[in-house]
Amino acid sequence: MKKRVVIALGGNALGNTLPEQMIAVKETSKAIVDLIEADCDVIVTHGNGPQIGMINNAMAALTREVEGQPNTPLSVCVAMSQAYIGYDLQNALREELLNRGITDLPVTTMVTQVRVDADDPAFLDPTKPIGHFMTKEEAVHAVNQYDYVVKEDAGRGYRRVVASPAPKEIIELQAIKGLIGHELVIACGGGGIPVVRNGNHLTGASAVIDKDWTSSLLAQEVDADVLIILTAIEKAAINYGKENQQWLEHITVEEAEKHIQNGEFAEGSMKPKMEAAVAFAKSKPGRKAIITQLEKSREGIEGKTGTHIEL
Ligand code: ADP
Ligand code: MG
Fold it and tell me: What is the pTM of this model?
């Protein structure tokens, strides 16, 4: 039986600028194709932090500079980021597959909508900063002109903050499932395009969903064996950055939950990864989540490194 693996790519797998991304995806593709050679069915997800910032800024400039161009909704910016990142990944993955003589695995990016609840409390308290820093005058203008929520960011200036609600349903799930095993699918990019349901209509929501959370939901829904979250660090730690720091290797869901409760993992970086890992690992016996570094993914899945979370 082939192992089914959902692999979630973090920021360092994609870089911060257009040229950086084009280079980064080459290394990323090697790690992904390593897993395919190790006889895994792989589904790829990814974040979009820097890219959504760029696209949002570019679309805001369009609105400023060209009369009659309305503001671009954040949901549309997420859709654009999925296509752009998907393009670079498809291109690099295709090349890496061909270089290794794998000619029967097409690569596809699924533009993916993810339903969130309109009454998710996250909408009342936007916390996720996106885009460039603004002066006070620019911030006031953005609030008045575009209804942005803007917050002061640690003395460095003002930034737009957006809601980060919980993912409830992957709209294109059946389409994704139909491709697994026949094609290498990239899905749920940037946490998915946030939408709310109005009868049969899905309306884009002004939000950015956490990609770690959506990846966990996807892994559960496609009945994956492994969720592997690739980030900038080889293992998670307790007492992180302190003298008594201790790397975590094989831990139970119960231990992970205790560490989350004790505040061992930073908000917005390691904490959502741990929460996503726990949600997946506890959803069914035999499911395992691994948090490790991109370059270590193969050793990680072989159990030689990384932080492994199981029931
Ligand atoms: P990604 O782009 O992959 O989502 P993040 O920067 O959001 O990456 O999260 C990974 C980072 O979390 C690590 O590089 C590390 O600096 C930080 N981090 C915070 N708390 C911990 C911890 N307890 N153990 C390990 N890393 C931690
Ligand atoms: Mg992150």
Answer: 0.94
